[in-house]
Structures are given as structure tokens and as C-alpha cells.
């Protein structure tokens, strides 16, 4: 076991070094102005094993905008609040289209295909918000993430949130569209306000890997000793991450990495090795599907070196 | 271990009994006239564990039309012949649409999204056919399936093949459409002839579970002692089954059953428990996505009772 | 000539009577709450010939919400302001989809297909608004309509405008979506405010037929003696009304009525007989494409009786 | 009147000369190999007025492949055979998509939007064929075109027909797709055989303008003295040409030329001036929508010079 952790530590360190030097880094997201300033040369990688040992490499302690990775946490929170009622508002199928597509919503009467595309995450946020003030809902989300990561220092990057709020017209289109079908029910500006802010949570790879541990361990969070969700629910969230966690690149991530994962346009990815480890990687350059280019490569290398795959 | 097999045997038997009695059975596929005659009351279930022990229940020895489950075997065969060149003709992403949809082909210039929707499987068949006579290509596919199942009695149901050939206009549309983009290259009637015939292979749950064992055991087929594919390729085929194996119900199958699986409109499903077992189920009634209704329920029960899930 | 007007008068009167009694009246639009209260039994018809003689029948003097018919007037106004620059923001092709569809916008990067679907009319409104306060832009539109109809009593129905503003989420989705592509440039609430208000202009059939006269007479308004637009522009607006004026029922209207026309979900239709007459009809019940059901039938009868068709 | 014909003659001659010299000629269709050989420098123009006087310019007597213009004649023939039953198999709305798109067929259950896109024309051909041998059906179509043009020398270009038959996979996809919904009912190869052959009819501008005269004159063919169709049907065919005759460029043609017209990928266009004239133009280079580039420009010039527009 200790030997395995040594192998893991070496792998994380070596992959981080190799990735730091790679010339092909993808393109930093530019549709959120504030994110466009991020240095594409950054790279961080962190793994936390079942015993809580941490292997870290590169910029593993630098905070970045987790963006859509926050959708894993809001989905978990919303399932705790609404249970299976949540599935009346959002589906469980891969979308077969881009992260911000609105076409499917028209064909399927305003019900987003899954909770990890933008439309679905907005619907989930709307559910968390219902009956509360935006400030309260956002506070609850932030407390939950801090609790999962066991780290009270996690913050929202207000500049990023404000930047999205000024420019997030496609998300506003999605929210209005769903509102016309009754899938979103709160005032649009409230729902979008909470959505933009939870996407703007800043975390380091280390914090993110810590926060994902409950998904690797049957819903129980080893760091805090709490049962966050039931084992079945943890499995199901993992299943959704596998089939829908990388937008229209989900099939490719499953094919290459073989682990449930969720990406964000900030360049981060959270990946789960059931029973073994929680992984987080950060490289700001994206591929055409909007997923971290080197992030996926790093996870592919790491899973291959460690023999980690849920597929055998 | 033996205790686990006893649990498995009991589970398979009891689930088969319960399913036999269920009134809600879905609708038998009627668009292939020959399949419409099948008795919706049939139900079979079979599991083969790592040691080759077989647990069977219900009509586990009755042959049925495997239909799209054959696509797992043709994909494996084609990867052996063409390697990664295959991915120039077919993608690896869930389609987000029905099994026989042609819309995506127009938007993506004739390249099907994955090898498990009809268009993708026709493109894979075309690749197997290239440079051969239809009879030879079909012979090769049949020999491969018999080898995997270690059973020389497996046959093609000519009546089903002829029935599809007479009525398979949507598949002919898909093939012609891909031909116009150069994704299908052989004469349409050759490609479709081979496609309709391999879909018409008849197997029992027992034969199917045997044939799937290589996917549960790192590409190595315990029954025959042969390495069919590399461990990595076995994992990747499993990944594709997970993300794309149930058409537009793939997310739901992953969410509920938590195992890689491939369904056919004959009502069969092949599912893989990596490292543990190969499973086959048959119930002819389908849900609206074209997947076996009770087949999925039975696998959901079995995986829950056995604690089998790739997601933790 | 006078004989022809006598024929016209008789036809208008008789058709209005027949239509008043018809049991099949379509369904009143219910997605704008305020419009849902309108009595489906109302029916008005009015024709103004080249000499300015007016033939009226039924409720020809009752004001109704002109809704999308206003798009003819805003297009005319915007062409006067921006000329052919307008066509950078909006196309000239029939859409092949519903009046409020957003699918096409995604496929064609935010540029609406024509100025008469909702998205296109919002883009045109945005152009009129540019650099002005909403109140000013709206004032200009209202003045223009009053000038065309030669009638200072025409008003905006504030209750209808407010009702749409509260419930027009799909239009807000369209506007936000176009804003994300830079096709809409003003603050969304400004553009939508002007849009909802000009759609809420209330006019009677008589006022509407008067306002449409310039399109029947080479751009020259006989009532006021002014050249509103050039003869070529008048022809082109008529062409757009013919190909795009009835959403996804434009082909049917051309086939049956054979005249350029523009419908609104309030149940009104403005139709043009080039060189001869301007027609307006009102019947609140709609067909599935969102066009006045009896309105089209009445125009079909009238054009047949008078031998009016642009197609021979 | 004679003065008007003199103006027409001069206009036709001068436009033909100007067009012969134009450098921007569009691209000759290359997806039908046989058509790719045509000299892009050819240009012909012909107008026949109500008295039967012919104004011709450029290559007005050179035969070219009329391609989709034949759809006007097959629609007329099929309406004569089946009457309004035809509209059960094909719609009357602009498609909003490319001439060979299959997307709409999936969304609308195999019923093509109108008789002038490829799918619609194949459905019309299938109706003409029903119960006959392909040879007979084709003979009937050819006899009808010769009768309309009053010219027994009109022939089918067998090389073009054979070329399309070898390469027309997208049309085969459309036909198979419609067959799966019962919209096409004959053996695919029969229907496509007739379709490819009637598209391969070769006519000169002069012959084409002669053949179109019945549409300009209330269904009555002045050259032959026969009533081909009723006045109402002639108007309706003109309406369909206006809204659907130029695929996804129909709106543009109506906007610029202001006349009903039907184009073919051979570079020909037939246009109708109701009550006045029948026009034919030929320039092989196409615009991106698949319509003759200079053909449309020439008709735009001619209609402007002559003051011909159905829109006022």
C-alpha cells in the first residue's frame, strides 16, 4: 500500500513536470473576459488516496475558477434537498451537443438533458434557490463545498462572477427559455446570479481533490467522517459524471481515461477512482469541446500508470 | 468465493422467476416483421463468473435474435483488422438521438457518432467487408462469434435476415447517405446484406454470456485461453458500451445498472462486470428508447443484490 | 370601376356575415394572458381601393392587438434609417420553423432568417432603438404608424404590453441569444420593451387597411400624398410578406390566397393587392401555425371572388 | 405593344451580351460528374410574350440539362393524375434548408416540405410511376414536356442520367427514407430511375420558355391552344415556384427578381411573368444555394428594365 502511494507520488510529480513543458496547451476560454487573462502555462495535479495521503505536483496549490466542476456539488446538494423530484426538471442522458446548446431544449420542451450541461445546471441551481434569497442559496452552496473540502478558506472570485454576469447572454437565453416552459421558476436574475457565483468558486487542485473524496468512498467523506450521500447516490453521481461530465467530449474521456470526471472551462477536471482516490488537475488551455486539453492527457497518463480504470 | 457463486445462483433464479410473472413487459419490436411474432412472455438470464461457473434462470437456453448486440463483436473484429484507422470513419461520442436517426449524419458530414448506433455499425460492417465478398465477411463474423462463445452451433436466422432485408429502408437510407460522403465504400447491397445477417445471429443468454467473457477479463477469454484483444482495448470497448450501448437510454442504464452493456431490439442485453462476470438477459418487450424493459430491470436488481457497479 | 367597388362592397359584407356564423374558429392565443380574454366570435374585414373607397364588414372598426403585423411597419422604418445595412443583421429567407423557434439561430450564428419571425423583428427593433431611449424609439414607431394610417387616435394597449413583458420569456431567450452573437446590441430590457410595446399597438381593420395602402401603390401613400418608400422597396417588402409573412404557414397562404400578407397572433392579417387595394381582416382564433384561421379563409374567398392574385 | 416587344428584344440581347462578358460566374455543379464538364462561359436568355413573339440572346438555342426545372412539369402532370391527393404525400411550405437535406424528413415523418426540393420531387415522381413500368412513366413525362414546348425534338441526355444513377447516393438515401414511412411506395430503383431520367431532359432556353407559357396565361397554352390546367391550378403552381422554387434561396429570388421561378443545378431558370411572358435563362455557374448565379442577375435586370414584378 505504501508502495502504491510511492508510485502515485512519483507519477503525479513526473506527469506534472512533463506537462509543464508541453508546447501544445489548447486555448484559454475567452468568452468569459476575466478568465482570458489566466496564464496558459500553469499546470497542477493532485491525488488523495483512501487513507487521505496527498500526492501533489506543479501548481497544485494555486486557486483557479472551478466553473462547471461546481455542478457536481450543486447536483449533490439539490439531490439532498429534492431527492428524485429533481429528475422531473432535468434528464440523465448525454446531450450529443455543445455545453451551451439551446437546440435540444426546443426539441424536448425546455427540459435539459442532464445536470452537467449549462442548461441543466441552471435548472438545478433554480431548484436550490427556490423559496430562498440568492444570498442564502449561495451561502449554502459555499458552506457545502467548504465542508466537503474541509477548508474554510475557499472563496468566490467576485471579479469572475461579475464578468460572467456582464457577458453571460447565452446562459440568460437558456434560463429564459426554460422559464418559458416552467422548468426554471425563480426570477431569472436571481437564478443566474447564484449560478454565475457558484461557477466562480476558486479552488486549488488540492482543495478540489479533497472535496471529491466522498464520491470515491461510497458517499462517505473520510476527511470529515460524515456520510454525505448514500452509497447508491454516490455511484449514480459518478455514473452521470462518466456519461455527461465532459459535454460533447464525454465519450472520449471515458474511452481514454476510463474514470468518472467533470471538467470546467477554467481548465480544471475532477476525476474519481472508486474505492481508491480522488483526483484533480488544472491546465487552462481547452480543446474544441471546452475541456482541459492537457488535463485529460495527464489523467490518461496517470490512470494508465496506476492501472486505474473502472472498465477492467 | 463459492459462497458468492451461491448468492449469484440464487439471485439469478429468483429474479428470473419474478420477471416471468411481471405484467408490464414493454412492446415487442414490430418494425422487423419476423421479430414481431416473438412471445413477449419469454425471459432468460445468465451469468458466467471468473471461474467459468454458470448461473442460469428462465429461458436462458432459448435462442433469440441478438440484433445490435452483434455490434460489440463486429467492432472488436474491425478494431483487430483496422486498428485506430477505424476511428476515421466513426466517432466515440453518445449520439443524443434515436438508434436510427439520420439528422446527426447531415450535421457531421456522414460520420456516425459511435459504432453502436445503426449508422456507425453499418460503417464498421463496411470496413470489415472491404475487399471481400459478402459471404466471406459474414463467415468471418460468424466464426468469430462462435470462437468467443466456444460454441459451433450458433447460427444465423435467415428468416430474420430476409425480413430485415425486405423492410430495412431506414438502414438503406443511412448506408446511401454515408456512401455519398465516402464513409461507406462498398456496394450498398453488399454492406447491408452483411449487416442484416450479423444482426440476425441467434444466441441464447448462455451463449451470449460466454461470448462476452473476454470483456470482463482484460481481453483474455478464460473459456478458450486466448487473448482476444489487449487489456486496453477491452477497457475501451467497455467504455463505449457504457456511454453508447443503449442508444438514447445509455445514460439511464449507466445511472441505474452501473455496468457497461449493449442492448438489441430483439430484447437481449449483454452486460459486463469487469473482473467478475459476464451477464446476458433476454426479455422481448422494449421501452421507448428501444431497449429491453425488463432486461434492464433485471440487471438493475442483480447488480444491486451482488453489489456490482463500476461506480463504487 | 364603380361597378368593381360595388362588387367589392358586396363581397366584403357577405363574407363578414358568413364568417360571423362559422362554428370552426380556431383557438385564441393563450400564451399572452391578456390576449386570451378576447371574444373568439369577433370578425372584421375591410378593403380600401386605389381611389380610397372603403368597404367594411363585421367588426371592422373594433381595435385589436396587431402584434406581429407591426413588424411590417418597423421593417419599413428601419430600412429608411439603415438602408441595406439592415440585411447584415437579418436574412431574407423563409425559416421553415415556428415563429418563436431558436434552433435556427444556433445553426446560423445568431442571425435570424427574416424580419418577420420573432427573432428577426427583435433584431430590427434593436436597430431602430440604437442610440435612442426606448421611449423615443417607441414614439417614433407610433408616429409612423399614425402617419401611415392618417389617424392620430391609434394607441398602444399598455395592458397587453405589460402582459407580454411579464411572460415573454421565449422572446427574452431569443434576444439574449442574439446579444451573445452581437446581433442585438442594446440592453435586452430596452430592446424587448420597445418590441413588446409596438406589438401591443391596437388598430381596427379600417385603420390597418389604411396604413397598408403605401404597399399597394408603389410606396406612395394615396391618403397622405407622401412617398413613404421607393417603388422598389415597396415591392421588396411585399416579396418578404409573401415568402415569410405567415411563419411556417407562408407557403399555404401564398398557395391559397395568392397575395402578400402579414399575420399577427392577435388574429389580424394585413394583405396587399398590388395596384388595387389594401385589405385587413380580424378573427382571433388561430390555426396551428399561429395564423388567423378564418382570416385566411376570408381572404381566400375575397381574392377568388374579386379575381385578385399576384400569380395570374 | 410592338414597342414593348422591341424594348424586350433589346433588353434580352443587351443583357445576354453583358452576361457573356462577366468574370464572376459561380461554380459549375460538380457532384454530378457529367455536368462538371459544361463550359461555364455559356449564357442564354429567351422570353416569349403573350402573342408568342420570341426574344432570344446568347446561347438561347443550346440545349442544357434542365435538372430540377423538370419538377415543375412533373408536379403539373401529377396534379392532373392525382389532384389534391398529391398533398397527402408532400407539403407546400418552404423548407428552410438545402435542396438535398434529410433532416426535415426525420422531424416530419418522411413527408417532404414541398414538391421542389429533391425529396418532394422524388415523392411526386413515385406518384406518377404508381402502377406503371418506369419506361411508360418516363415516356409520359417526356411526351408532356414535348407537348408543352410544342417540340418533338426534346430528348433525354442518357449520359447525364447514367451519371446521376451511378452517384446519386443522397437521393437514394432520401428515397429509402421516405419508403420507410410509406411516402414512396414503388421499388426504389424504379422511382429513382424515372427521377434521374426526367432531371436529365435537355432543353434550350427557347424550348423551356415555350414550355412554361401555360403558367403565364392562366393554364392555357397559347402555342398549342390547349387548356393544360385550370387557371386556379396555374396560379397555385406559380405560388409554389415563388415560395419554394429556389431551395434555400427562394426568399432572395422573390426579393430581387419578384417573379415565380424554378432553378436547376444545370444552371437553368424558368420564370413566369403572369399575363405577360415566359422567361428562360441559362448560365451554368451556381451560387452557394445551388441556383444559377448570373441567371438570377440577368432576370433581376430584365424584370427591372421591363417593370415586371408581381409585387407592384
From TrEMBL, chains A, B, C, D:
E.C. code: 3.5.1.2
Matching SUPFAM superfamilies: beta-lactamase/transpeptidase-like
InterPro entries cross-referenced by the UniProt entry: Beta-lactam/transpept-like, Glutaminase
Pfam family, one: Glutaminase
Molecular function terms, GO-annotated: glutaminase activity
Record-linked Gene3D superfamilies: DD-peptidase/beta-lactamase superfamily (3.40.710.10)
KW Protein biosynthesis (keyword) present: no
Keywords: Acetylation, Hydrolase
Domain of life: Bacteria
Presence of keyword Aminoacyl-tRNA synthetase: no
Catalytic activity annotation: L-glutamine + H2O = L-glutamate + NH4(+)
Positions that bind substrate: 68, 118, 164, 171, 195, 247, 265
Family: Belongs to the glutaminase family.
Stored NCBIfam families: Gln_ase, PRK00971.1-2
Subunit structure: Homotetramer.
Protein name per its UniProtKB record: Glutaminase
Organism placement in taxonomy: Bacteria, Pseudomonadati, Pseudomonadota, Alphaproteobacteria, Hyphomicrobiales
Gene name, Swiss-Prot/TrEMBL: glsA
